[in-house]
Amino acid sequence: MADETALPAVPVVDFDTHPDRYRHWRLEVDGEVATLTLAVDEKGGLVGGYELKANSYDLGVDIELYDAVQRLRFEHPEVKAVVMTGGLEKMFCAGANIRMLAQSSHAWKVNFCKFTNETRNAIEEARATSGQTWLAALNGTAAGGGYELALACDQIVLIDDGTSTVSLPEVPLLGVLPGTGGLTRVVDKRHVRKDRADLFATKAEGYRGATAVEWGLVDGTAPRKSWDAEIDRRAREACQGSTRPGGEGVELTPLDRQEDGDTIRYPHVTATLDRDARRVDITVAGPADQPPADPRAQGVDYYPLALTRALDDLVLRLRTNEQQLGTWVVRTTGDVDGVLAYDAQLADRADDWFVHETTQYLRRTLKRLDVTSRSLVAVIEPGSCFAGLLLELALACDRQYMLEGVYEDPHPDRDPDADPAVLVPTGANDGRFPMGNGLSRLHSRFWGRDEDLDTARKRFGERLTAAEADAAGLVTMALDDIDFEEEIRIVLEERASLSPDALTGMEANHRFVGPETLETKIFGRLTAWQNWIFNRPNASGPDGALRRYGSGQRGSYDYQRV
Amino acid sequence: MADETALPAVPVVDFDTHPDRYRHWRLEVDGEVATLTLAVDEKGGLVGGYELKANSYDLGVDIELYDAVQRLRFEHPEVKAVVMTGGLEKMFCAGANIRMLAQSSHAWKVNFCKFTNETRNAIEEARATSGQTWLAALNGTAAGGGYELALACDQIVLIDDGTSTVSLPEVPLLGVLPGTGGLTRVVDKRHVRKDRADLFATKAEGYRGATAVEWGLVDGTAPRKSWDAEIDRRAREACQGSTRPGGEGVELTPLDRQEDGDTIRYPHVTATLDRDARRVDITVAGPADQPPADPRAQGVDYYPLALTRALDDLVLRLRTNEQQLGTWVVRTTGDVDGVLAYDAQLADRADDWFVHETTQYLRRTLKRLDVTSRSLVAVIEPGSCFAGLLLELALACDRQYMLEGVYEDPHPDRDPDADPAVLVPTGANDGRFPMGNGLSRLHSRFWGRDEDLDTARKRFGERLTAAEADAAGLVTMALDDIDFEEEIRIVLEERASLSPDALTGMEANHRFVGPETLETKIFGRLTAWQNWIFNRPNASGPDGALRRYGSGQRGSYDYQRV
């Protein structure tokens, strides 16, 4: 294993950026077609100690890509096809930077892979959810993560110049797996035969056009002289039949985020970091107003979008920058009716592209929670508003604790005359925000227990007291105030005392019951294998392949198979 | 990570045993119902350094269980229900022995978990494939692996004595996951709600009867005074409607295995170990005779059964005892028509219980290959007989290389007048031996490419030359003798030079395309997470929970979440 004490210091990572400030990508929009060109600034690494040669990437490069993906959804409703290409000669992208990986801690590598995977998934679903087709125009070699980036697109075209290849050289050169879905997508999405996939993933130099097309690794090739025309033709063709609405977009203006000591505050979300208890308390506020007649006119201030942007940013920041805080406690505060009004609007106005995109964004953000390696606990108290779309937050948690009645003891922050908490399940919990496995969180909760699912469905729209929510199977425990605080205290203390690795593995297994998809395979299986391999001396030890890469020496292996 | 240089020496493991020699289990057959009682001999550990207290188990205990599972299929066609219970007071089984785990190498732990998983899967499918229902009669606490053993059964009854519980204490006490399918079966088979599964898997002391029944952790409870009657009632009820044929069984006599230096020889299988090349050459001989009129009369000499027993034993021995030999090369030799005659008999006589059990056993053995962490390469030469059931061996491999024509150069072992090799696909490749994911190996090979699948299906029963097999997508490469030997040499040398961990992860991802099942989730996802966790200092480091268990000190954790 890498000696993690000697690793370079990593900065606090910000996810805020804008096309005007991109160092690594160029985003050009030409009517229905956008072009996203990767031309990495070698000196622009997020952490010191490596140069981003040959269009290799690090987290900073990927943060810009994520920003572009989001803006193409919200700011460019006219864009029906996105061409992703490279700005260097002969090299589309060499994948994740190896020196960066070699010098990174295990946690950094895992987090980096998770975020890059999430962005690739967002690219992959753009066509189905937003009518936006992504086309990888490989103007040169796509190696490792470079080819995996292409795999997330709907089509892959490789330049036929006699030298450019697609490859996954991780196994032969680095002793690790392709870390962002490569193995899974090759066989499960591209349907490359298992034995050919095996050849491909062990041949460092990869394959050129003819074989790549025959095996299904790419969809087509084109020589340099007809390259632009071919890519243009495919992009125009992809635009046909698209459901993208055109018209004016909604600008994703800078996030309003205030940090004050251990508090992070957004308009509708507040997080308080308790380092001693290794915990974050997250409070989501319900909307202050009724839904607007014209959601798009509000832009980023539209409550569901503002909420989602805050949650997304918070999840990313906490995952990346606060790895010691292993438990996140989720509360809500506000008016149930206000939440339900927005919940209804998301359903009623599902045909409005902006409302639809907002819903999809919240869906993606909830999926981030599902794959977050933190224990998630919902605490449901008087004054809370866990209804419909906000109830999804509780259902994404590993446990839900609900106070029966009110807090009786005098307390400055608590109103003894408050109404007891209620939960309100709605259709939002039953399909509007499907998990990566395709199930709603409600269906997942009652997997294999159809009667219980039906029972819960019968309560849609009802304001369920703690006892009723418990009877409907929607909470883990309903306790009165004599036991509640003590129970929560014990639960959180106990959780904070357990092995973080074992909790991560346990939660990853419990959260995804039932069917598996490309996405759950990537996060659940591929990632788990990669975690193991990253930890092995053969990869990360002082003589491991990852550490020795570029030194002229191959990795030195212990050949024991396990 | 454990300092693996200081670990106790492990013996060469034999898998041969017999109920007369069991030290840990008692097998009693009473008409339609068999009872398998776990009463572990504390002093009977397979490796020194630990005592098997509280009915905890090690590999030796599990080898006996596997033997019993096999004999209950073959020697006892009259047994329709199997009651698994414990021979100690108050404790059914405490799971895998912790001191054994703590002193074991990573490879030993992983191999041990794999074998125990395979045995549990064989128990789990007994009802569906053989009409034999397994009933866990928990006469005391079932903790960790003890409860996981119960989870593999069709029913679980827990004694209601005020103290006995079911539990999965691995996460809270040991900082690892339950290693034999517990998390997966709790949510995916028993359909325990995610939040309750979370409570369960973090509560070391577990849950007693009432909660266990309510949550679905067990099917029922019974007090001591009516215990025997209740178990008997359930066992008798389980017998009803069983398809078990009754009558006389087939004795599984001791295997004929000859070891001579680096050669292991069985009647139809020979393995040659090449330690320098880190390779095993496995040659499977086709049948010498035509299929018998009465397969059962031949007993263990029936070719498909003799072959399967040899393969099963070889796979287990190589996996456990020869971990440095990372590549297995599979060849066959013999008469294609002879193989096809047996292939036809397995199909024609599928209703004969003995033929059926033999087929199922071969299926389970092929599944062992699928989850074996070795690179598998089929070499198809003149004189080979890769037809139908033996073609499955090639299809289970990561690659298939076929010689086009014959070897032209003079060579003492090679006949220049030989007929070129042929492959013969049959229905056996298309559903008789499904993989753990439910797909046939042929379907898996052409996943998502229905036209290619149809093309291959059209050739069933045909003797395909190398060029034809290549055109039908059944081999990775067809090469003439000018290139063949050189190519094989390079392939095997290259393979032997790669990181064994990366290959293991890669192969595990490529081999299971498409749908996922309980079984693939356990081997693919749960196991991968466990591999990672086993490697982390929080579990296996000198201050990790696994190493400190029993010392009175809890594990000391680095609380960073990754």
The mean pLDDT of chain A is 96
Q: Tell me the quaternary state.
A: homodimer
- Summarize the amount of helix of chain A as a percent range: 40-55%
Q: How big is the Rg of chain A?
A: 24 Å
> What is the strand content of chain A?
15-25%
Inertia-based shape of chain A:
globular
Determine the structural class of chain A based on helices, strands and strand pairing. Answer: alpha/beta
Largest interface: A-B, 89 and 89 residues
Residue stretches of chain A low in confidence (pLDDT < 50, at least 5 long) are none
Largest sheet of chain A at a glance?
8 strands, mixed
Total count of helical runs of at least 4 residues of chain A = 23
Strand arrangement across the biggest beta sheet of chain A: 12-13-14-15-16-17-19-21
How many beta-strand runs of chain A?
Answer: 21
Structure description:
Two copies of one chain form a homodimer. The first copy, chain A, has 562 residues and is an alpha/beta fold. In chain A, α3 packs antiparallel against α21 and α5 (145-151) runs parallel beside α7 (182-189). The first copy, chain A, is globular and about 75 Å long. Chain A starts with 24 loop residues before the first strand and ends in a 14-residue tail after the last helix. At the A-B interface, α3, α6, α7, α8 and α19 of A face α3, α6, α7, α8 and α19 of B.
